[in-house]
Design brief:
globular, mainly beta, binds copper (II) ion, 6 helices, six-stranded mixed beta sheet
Length: 543
């Protein structure tokens, strides 16, 4: 017995000795940025926007010393990483108080995973003002994804207005940045095309939802950057024809989703949110805020290929290049038409609840949001196609079903979860290791990328239970219902929020609490599956 204990102790020492400590020093400071032409104050990490890419190997001990050179508190959150709550870096959660001006906070945690992730501030509007960068973690074992070149491609949206100013403007009027909103003229045009009853009905419905039919985005005026560079500054990933190039795409934008394509190249998606998936060949994909995708491309010609990420409101492109030599530029694609939201983007259940006699049989139930404008024959990545490369160990049936209702009031620019804006005392309480189904019901006409800290959820996308894709951020399309499974195996108080910066700041955030194993917390008795109609195929039901 004693010798077994000793052997165990020695092997523990050996594994500790093998783990390498990777230390980084990051200083957060204000800089004058001239990206938009005129100098405006922005927030940088070690003087740059984005900050330095942090690299680790699975099994490393991460030591990251963050010094705050701002005049306000700051924080750094490691997006998608599995770690102890205190190290997650969200002020007000798990005893983390933020980093006061002049202070240094040392983050220290073991690296338990591999893949593409990123980090950003979780204080005030600092993330939108520039505090973001990539994280790359190599697997301990040889990487199943082999490539000749490996680039982080981080997309961000850059505004002349500070985050504080944008937030104040939206509070004044949610339409402050809406230059392309629907007008009365549009309504009369619809009336001619659709008949009076139908057009008025849809205008009335939109009015009651306090949403505008063109709510693809609520902030405009952005310049879109690739690794901090404008289109003119031309970020370039070099290749030799025939090489396999791995692109680690990170959407670090505050308020922008994109349709991403590289005309002339197929993209093979090999990882989503850092987790390997069965390789999938696509022409383009829709990219939600805070998501990451790893793709492999194999350019064979001796020419520049344009990496084009078009904002879904068609305001602009983030443009980069893959090229055999520096200074080459591919063609910039023309903009696709801006989609207009339709009846199918409204939550039918809410409408039926409000007006059970409403006849919806003659209405157009298609979704404007889903219309990418891609030419016919284009293969667009569908969430339903994502399949985990490795099987999950935990495939238990969930014993509880919890609704997470996303709501909003555009008149007051308030965004809610389960009818409430963020309050520290609210939240969802789970027992340790409980298996639950979270049912996301989007009652608004905007898509919300919902992010859970500290754990991955498994997206119920129709794949077999063991192969559901892991996600840290899930786009919930307008008016639709999406369900995910969660094994609550990371104790802590985890922020759970929309990753559109100004939605989170306007209330669309709550806490998901996972009890400690020793707490003895017992979850409420398993509920009957009364919400069955709400999950799985819920969003196909009306098509
Ligand atoms: Cu949102």
């Amino acid at each position: 017995m004693k010798s077994m204990l000793l052997a165990g102790f020695l092997s523990l020492c050996a594994s500790v000795a093998l783990a390498e400590t990777r230390t980084y020093d990051l200083t957060i400071s204000q800089v004058q940025s001239t990206i938009g032409g005129k100098a405006v104050p922005k927030i940088a990490v070690n003087g740059s926007i984005p900050g330095p890419v942090l690299r680790f190997t699975e099994g490393d001990e991460a030591v990251i010393r963050v010094t705050n050179a701002l005049k306000e508190p700051t924080s750094v959150h490691w997006h998608g990483l599995l770690l102890p709550g205190l190290m997650d870096g969200a002020p007000g959660f798990n005893g983390f108080k933020g980093i006061a001006p002049g202070e240094t906070f040392t983050y220290r945690f073991p690296i338990r995973q591999s893949g593409t992730y990123w980090y950003h501030s979780h204080s005030l509007g600092q993330e939108a003002d520039g505090l973001y960068a990539g994280i790359v973690i190599d697997p301990k074992r040889p990487d199943p994804i082999q490539a000749d070149r490996d680039y982080v491609v981080l997309l961000s949206d850059y505004h002349q207005d500070s985050a504080a100013r944008i937030q104040a403007n939206l509070k004044k009027s949610s339409e402050y940045y809406q230059y392309k909103r629907r007008t009365v003229g549009d309504l009369f045009k619809d009336t001619r095309e659709q008949g009076v009853g139908k057009a008025l009905k849809s205008a009335g419905e939109w009015g009651r939802m306090r949403m505008l039919p063109t709510d693809l985005s609520d902030v405009t005026g952005y310049r879109f950057l690739v690794n901090g560079l404008t289109t003119e500054q031309n970020w370039t990933g070099l290749f030799k024809p025939g090489e396999r190039v791995r692109l680690r795409l990170v959407n670090a934008s505050a308020m922008t989703m994109y349709d991403v394509r590289i005309p002339g190249l197929k993209m093979t998606v090999v990882a989503a949110d850092g987790r390997p998936v069965e390789p999938l060949e696509v022409d383009e994909f829709r990219f939600g805020n805070a998501e990451t995708y790893d793709v492999i491309v194999t350019p064979t010609e001796d020419r520049a290929y344009t990496l084009a990420a078009e904002s879904i409101d068609r305001e602009g492109f983030a443009i980069g290049n893959l090229a055999p030599r520096e200074g080459m530029k591919g063609e910039i694609p023309t903009h696709r038409p801006r989609a207009v939201l339709k009846m199918g983007d409204m939550n039918m259940d809410v409408m039926m609840r409000d007006d059970p006699n409403m006849d919806m049989t003659n209405m157009d139930h298609s979704s404007g949001w889903a219309e990418t404008g891609a030419p016919e024959g284009t293969v667009v990545l569908d969430y339903a196609d994502l399949k985990s490369l490795t099987p999950h160990e935990d495939t238990r049936e969930p014993t509880r079903f919890i609704k997470v209702v996303l709501g909003g009031n555009m008149e007051r620019y308030i965004w809610t979860i389960n009818g409430r804006t963020f309050a520290p005392e609210d939240g969802i309480q789970l027992a340790y290791n409980e298996r639950v189904r979270l049912i996301y019901v989007n009652e608004t006409m905007m898509a919300h990328p919902l992010h859970l800290h500290g754990m991955f959820v498994q997206l119920e996308n129709g794949q077999e239970a063991a192969r559901l894709p892991d996600k840290h951020t899930v786009i919930v399309p307008p008016g639709q219902t999406v369900s995910v499974l969660l094994s609550a195996n990371e104790p802590g108080d985890w922020p759970y929020h929309c990753h559109l910066m100004f939605h989170m700041q306007s209330g669309m955030m709550t806490t998901l609490r996972v009890a400690k194993p020793e707490s003895g917390f017992v979850p409420p008795a398993a509920e009957p599956q009364d919400d069955h109609s709400q999950h799985g195929e819920g969003h196909h039901a009306h098509h």
